[in-house]
Amino acid sequence: MSMHEDCPDFDPSAVYAPQGDAEELRELAFAKMPYGKYAGRYLVDLPEQYLIWFENKGFPNGRLGEQMAAIREIQMNGLEHLLRSLHSRPRF
């Protein structure tokens, strides 16, 4: 008996990320703030207080807002270093 057979809510896709997710992480790592005081900075390098302010006021609509919310979640879990490590790898 598999350890997940007794877990009807187990979703293997949540554990085994498809190839497209790796590209999304790379895109997130290199996403930059397009406007404002922090224009041109990588989203992952935005100050936490700035993202908290946006979280409270509402992230922008569209892709930028989704990326900012993802960065905020990454910051809350202390995982920014994972995205920053992609900056030192060659881009193909």
How are the secondary structure elements laid out?
Blueprint: H1 12-15, H2 19-30, H3 48-57, H4 62-76, H5 80-87
Helix pairs in contact: 2-5, 3-4
Question: What does the model show?
Answer:
The chain is globular. It contains five helices and no strands. It is mainly α and 92 residues long. The termini are far apart.
Primary descriptors:
single chain, 92 residues, mainly alpha, globular
* H/E element sequence: HHHHH
Number of helices: 5
Number of strands: 0
Query: Could you tell me the mean pLDDT?
Result: 83
Strand content: under 5%
Largest sheet: none
> Would you tell me the structural class of the helices and strands?
mainly alpha
Model regions low in confidence, pLDDT < 50 over at least 5 residues: 12-16
Structural shape: globular
Helix content: 40-55%
Tell me the Rg in angstroms: 16 Å
Q: In angstroms, what separates the terminal alpha carbons?
A: 42 Å
